[in-house]
Amino acid sequence: MSELKIGLFGLGVVGSGFVKVISRAINANAGIKKICVKDLGKERDIELPEGLLTDNPADILDDPEINLIVEVINDADAAFVIVSEALKRGIPVVSGSKAMVANHLPELIELQRKYDTALLYDASSCGSIPVIRNLEEYYDNDLLLEVKGILNGSSNYILSRVFDHNQSYEDALKTAIELGFAESDPSFDIEGFDSLFKLIIITVHALGAYVKPSEIFTYGISHISDFDINYAREKSVKIKLVAQVVKISDSEFTMFVMPEFVSRNKYIYSVDDEYNGVVIRGECYDRQFMFGKGAGSLPTASSILSDVMARLHGYRYEYKKMGYKGRPSYSTEPVLKVYVRYRNTPVTELLPFITIQQRFLSDDVNYVIGEIKLSDLIKGREILAAPDVFIVNIPTFFVHLDN
Amino acid sequence: MSELKIGLFGLGVVGSGFVKVISRAINANAGIKKICVKDLGKERDIELPEGLLTDNPADILDDPEINLIVEVINDADAAFVIVSEALKRGIPVVSGSKAMVANHLPELIELQRKYDTALLYDASSCGSIPVIRNLEEYYDNDLLLEVKGILNGSSNYILSRVFDHNQSYEDALKTAIELGFAESDPSFDIEGFDSLFKLIIITVHALGAYVKPSEIFTYGISHISDFDINYAREKSVKIKLVAQVVKISDSEFTMFVMPEFVSRNKYIYSVDDEYNGVVIRGECYDRQFMFGKGAGSLPTASSILSDVMARLHGYRYEYKKMGYKGRPSYSTEPVLKVYVRYRNTPVTELLPFITIQQRFLSDDVNYVIGEIKLSDLIKGREILAAPDVFIVNIPTFFVHLDN
Predict the structure, then answer these.
(1) What are the phi and psi torsion angles at A278 (to 5°)?
(2) Strands A30-36, A53-54: pairing kind
(3) Yes or no, beta carbons of B143 and A313 under 8 Å apart
(4) Sign, CA torsion B43/B49/B51/B54
(5) How far is the C-alpha of A47 from the C-alpha of A283, rounded, in Å?
(6) pLDDT tens figures, A301-335
(7) Is the separation of the CB atoms in B358 and B369 below 8 Å?
(8) Torsion of CA A350, A356, A359, A363, to 10 degrees
(9) Structure confidence at residue A2 as a pLDDT band (50, 70, 90)
(10) CB A305, CB B143: distance < 8 Å
């Protein structure tokens, strides 16, 4: 492709960032031909040439001159309609919609194959950190063992305020919303779904396996209490919301999103505020740590720009690992060591702990530390969703394998 | 390329690591057909099939079945002969020889163009950290402003022992040699040349500009004294050997390797021991930090493997940035703020400081803190090489631009 004529869907935080970024990229050989927005009448603090905006998707999809679509809208269902329609017409797409990609990846891969076109989405995972591209291209061998990290800036910002600035969780959440680090309905971030969707995408490019969101244990930070915070402080650890995918043997891997006690000697301990950090671990090369701004208008837009420029050279994901020999399969059999704090919910009766190593009982709060199968955590989701319960992973990790 | 038949030059630390790594990479579709070594009689603690070894380069270069050469020998001149001969015959090469690449890059680029073949060398810079590939492919736009990092594991190990473990410089150097982190002649590492060669390669892929080693200010850590160490401790900073390339305007960049006072709030402050860490800074995405094992047998070999597998898909560096509009040119005009410690050498008379802000004089040691042009540091190399002198960069950086 010698010149990119871009049709842009979405002019929100990321979309308007992309308009700015592309204007600085003099060597990109790319320009925006049309921008499709939901509300033409909305006031915008960005200057645009006359006639660039439309509210009719067909103005982009039907334009034979447009040879790349950038999709950065918030509505995952609408995004899927647009992206699949574009792929069916053979128009390559760069997308930043993690929920859309994570929920529809098998179909999107099939559409790319069938219509011989490309969908790139590095911006969907960890903003400006090039994690997808590196997993796909650089860590494309059999040495990869684990990808683990802090993938959600909003929840991390809140936990940083709590642990580094002694704010209460409620105050920290309020600050995050005020500063725009969290949405006014922050549940997508703080309940772990944003991290989950990124983890699903990462796992496809890390191990060549797609696992549906509903099959993965996902637990957020909204139930955290002062008791948990003080407990962590006493042990000189921080609680962070961690997403991880780990090979547990040559033939199996597991994955989950949950709060974790992170000790000072871990790379992710120092990932604070709205930043993201990813540790890639492999045989031979040990641990690689990548750190950067995981969200925000310009960082995400600069990641979109990297994908756009990759299209100048015809780049596409090959999903090579999906065809690899000895591809590992998903398992929820591993045993985790966890801290479960509760008040009235009788968690030790309701959850099938294998062993309980510590038990703290008091008038107003209790906790246990014990070992339990990941599959039993998935089955026990509703119990763990009770408002008086909070669970934290203690990463001695995969007890039956380590011992 | 459907199957890689590899001719390997060198079976030292990295070469034997590569033999191990490739045997674990079941999806690489690659095998070693021949290994060329200098000394066939040398005892090796690695098991190899009969007939794999040769000491005749022609056994590899003349073999029409061999479609990839991996070159990991220590002798930079011999490496250049082998690599250029291979490229002339149209055989792609993966190399780990930073001195060879840094010294000959313009010729090597020309050879790749003329004979339409590829040379990959990600392993030459920062071992297992994929810095070259990311600069070439992901940060291939106009946003990049700076690449700065700790690129040499040996000198960093020594400085870590000094600053984190209170060892003397001499003891730390001895430990480093004993543990194999530094060569028995460690000057390549501790005088900054290893960092310099990596920085030169990085700059080609960061900004599309090649600068000769002799034109770049390079100053190592061998003159560091207890006085300097204590001075840094009192200021709560560490001294680290830092390599950096920085755009100072839209049209100019500068680069150098020298010790720097690094404060606790910098990412590279926590890069300790034999690790490497690289900060990539750009407009819009701010700072990306990549951290990992920068050297050693298996980490470097795993980086070689990434390049080898990239050849399965025909990957080559395009050196796109060398053709970019508005490519910046190299300048040594920036003014640096430096600490210069000395005893008898009259550095303030011999070096044309623009201003001197602090002056400490005593019976047995003196220092000044002042501003000086980078070009005057280059001219003053011999003065700074006096055994009683040590210079450290104070990164308020580019005084005339910041103020």
Answers:
(1) -130, 130
(2) parallel
(3) no
(4) negative
(5) 50
(6) 999 999 999 999 999 999 999 999 999 999 999 99
(7) yes
(8) 0
(9) confident
(10) yes
Cβ count within 10 A of residue B27: 18
Q: How far apart are CA A201 and CA A186, in angstroms?
A: 21
Give the minimum alpha-carbon distance from B62 to chain A in angstroms, rounded to a whole number. Answer: 29
* Among the partner residues B267, B290, B306, nearest to A141 by beta-carbon distance: B306
The interface residues of chain B toward chain A in range 308-367, judged by CB-CB distance below 8 A, are: 309-310, 313, 315, 318, 321, 324-326
Judge contact between B223 and B239, C-beta under 8 A.
Answer: no
Q: Which tens digits make up the pLDDT trace of B253-285?
A: 999 999 999 999 899 998 998 899 999 999 998
Q: At what angle do helices A153-165 and A169-178 cross, to 10 degrees?
A: 130
pLDDT beyond 50 at B114: yes
In the structure encoding, which two tokens stand for residue A155, read together? 């929840």
Which has the closest alpha carbon to A393: A233, A256, A229, A252? A256
Q: Are strands B217-218 and A119-120 parallel, antiparallel or unpaired?
A: unpaired
For residue A281, which of A90, A149, A114 has the smallest C-alpha distance? A149
Query: Is the pLDDT confidence value at A96 over 80?
Result: yes
User: Does A285 sit within 8 Å of B293, measured CB to CB?
Assistant: yes
Q: How confident is the model at residue B234 (pLDDT cuts 50, 70, 90)?
A: very high
Structure tokens at B98: 């930073």
User: In this structure, what are the phi and psi dihedrals at residue A37, rounded to the nearest 5 degrees?
Assistant: -125, 165
Say which amino acid occupies B336. Answer: L
pLDDT (average), residues B337-363: 97
Write the single-letter amino acid at B106: P
Q: Quote the distance between the C-alpha of residue A3 and its chain's center.
A: 31
Residues with Cβ < 8 Å from B18, sequence gap 6 or more? B8, B70, B72, B301, B304, B305
If you average pLDDT over every residue of chain A, what do you get? Answer: 94
ipTM of the shown complex:
0.91
- CB contact under 8 Å between A133 and B137, yes or no, is yes
Residues 6+ apart with CB under 8 A from A112: A87, A118, A119, A316, A317
Q: What percent of chain B has pLDDT over 70?
A: 98
Characterize the bridge pairing of strands A286-293 and B286-293.
antiparallel
**pLDDT per position as a tens digit, A224-240:** 999 999 999 999 999 99
Give A348's DSSP letter: H
The amino acid sitting at B4 is L
Identify any residues that bridge with B71 across adjacent strands, giving them in sequence order. B9, B95
pLDDT at A349 over 60: yes
> From CA A136, how far away is CA A324, in angstroms rounded?
13
pLDDT at A180 over 90: no
Q: Are B176 and B190 in contact (CB under 8 A)?
A: no
Question: Which amino acid belongs to residue A236?
Answer: S
3-state DSSP assignment of residue A90 = coil
Q: What CA–CA distances, in Å, run from A309 to A118, B136, B282, B310, B320? A: 13, 11, 16, 19, 11
Mutate to test the interface with B, among A141, A265, A316, A320 (most CBs of B within 10 A): A141
Q: Is B361 exposed, middle or buried (0-12, 13-18, 19+ CB in 10 A)?
A: exposed
Distance CA B354, CA B357 (A): 10
Q: Is the pLDDT of residue A9 over 70?
A: yes
Q: Give A290's contacts (C-beta < 8 A, 6+ positions apart).
A: A126, A129, A130, A131, A134, A277, A278, A280, B288, B289, B290, B291
- A111 is written with which tokens? 């559409």
Smallest Cβ–Cβ distance between A298 and the set B270, B285, B305 belongs to B285
* B363 secondary structure, DSSP code: S
Q: Which residue has the tokens 């490309």?
A: A118
Phi-psi region of A251 (alpha: psi -120 to 50; beta: other; left: phi over 0): alpha
